[in-house]
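User: You have something folded?
Assistant:
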Amino acid sequence: MDWSAFDAALIRSTWDYHDVVDDFLAWVRRAAQATRLHNPVRLIEWNAHKRYLVDLEAAGLPVVPTALVTRADPESMTNIADRRGWSAVVVKPAVSAGAKATGRYDVGDPAGERALRGVLATGDALVQPYLTEVESHGETSLVVIGGHVTHAVSKLPSTGDFRVQAHFGGAERAVEPTPSEKELAGQALAAVSPFGPVTYARVDCVTVDGQPRLMELEVIEPALYLSFGPMSAADRLIAQVARGTTAGATPVADSTS
């Protein structure tokens, strides 16, 4: 494809990029040299590996506690959990999407250690505490387009599961984001503003002890749940790409109507 023939390119459905991430990032760099790519290439490179959660936690954002385990410096699941005081954990690849190879394990469960070793055989891994709030109350996804929170979706797992994705039986419904959730979205977008203008993002969070914690900041190819939002959300996305700029990096307090 001659990407220079296009005024802009909007990444939307590369949902298998994590399986060939090096090839994908090489294409991102080529495409960004040929046309205006949304989102910015440096932001995409940073977001492709979930160590970005550690970066955001270090920047002071209320992130779900995250231990990054690298292939070069492996550590057991039990050691990590014992050091942090976790009784149950979630193990997942550091480069992944759609909860691929993601599992919940009690500390001391040999299956969890095997799962972590399996992930480390091909890449880095994350170990996080298992949050019962995900199972009982689900996650909230805030959609941010052109610096504005346009709408939000609540995602609930099926009974007995913790994965909220629809292909695992999760259910979705439109909700009004809370002021604290909007504030978290603003903090997340402000933290990545040095990468350049963010055309679109999805901020996934879970409420723990009454306060939202960041689970994911998706800026590569997130489902934007446009069918759950107002028509103005899709119009805003089109306008951002057409203008080649954004209205600002930090979401406003009120959703766009």
